[in-house]
Amino acid sequence: MKNSNICESFTPNSVYKQSIRWKRKPIWLPTGKTKMFRIPKRPVIPIEESIELKRLFNTYRTYMTSLRLYIQQMAKKYEVQLDERKLKQTEEEDFQACSAINDEWNASVAKIREVRLKAEKEAYKEKIFKIMMNKEEEQETLKKQANEQIRRVKEVADTFITAKNIDAAIEECLSNIVNHNRGIDLNGNWYDGKYPPTQVTEEVATQSTVNQ
User: What residue ranges carry the coiled-coil annotation (predicted)?
Assistant: First the structure.
């Protein structure tokens, strides 16, 4: 850093630099060697101008002294002597007024809170009632479905094979043998066991005999 300027780098690249020059010498630097023993020349003020400046300064000083004394007089006029009883009374009155305002606010807030809690309670009751109704409807639906299933089971309960009728069921199965080798033609006729020979089968057999 030199006396004339200060250089600062704003980027890591040394190419980009900005030089900041002072408009005047910084205050922390000592007096220059060329100006150390220089005696400044006193300004020459004309007598008329000096008299006018002195008059203006006296007027300003008079005005400021008057203003200062006026402010002191007004401060003494409105100054209240310290009275402990009066001070306590004033504090008590102020506390009572603030307490009354606070009580009024608390009462209004309590009313608003009471209305809000009542509305929330009614809404909660309505919500619980709807949930209970939905539960009852679900239970009723499940009960109907269960009764319907029980009714269907009771209808076919006679066909169930139990330990009591297992022998009779076995004898019935052995006596009534079911032949699954069945067929149906285009006319809706059922054929059990072996299918009867058709005309097409006879013709095919005759042709095979002739070919032999």
Answer: none
Q: How confident is the model at residue 190 (pLDDT cuts 50, 70, 90)?
A: confident
Kindly state the tokens that stand for 180: 């699954």
Q: Which residues contact 169 (CB under 8 A, 6 or more apart)?
A: 161
Distance CA 196, CA 191 (A): 8
Checking if the pLDDT of 81 tops 90, the result is no
101 to 87, 90, 95, 97: CA distances (angstroms): 21, 17, 10, 6
- Residue holding tokens 């200060």? 6
Q: How many whole angstroms separate alpha carbon 140 and alpha carbon 158? A: 28
CA distance 85 to 164: 109
Q: Give me the phi and psi of 166, to 5 degrees please.
A: -70, -35
Q: What share of the chain has pLDDT > 90, as a percent? A: 40
Q: Which long-range contacts (CB under 8 A, 24 or more apart) does 193-197 make?
A: none
**Which of 46, 39, 1 has the alpha carbon at shortest distance from 21?**
1
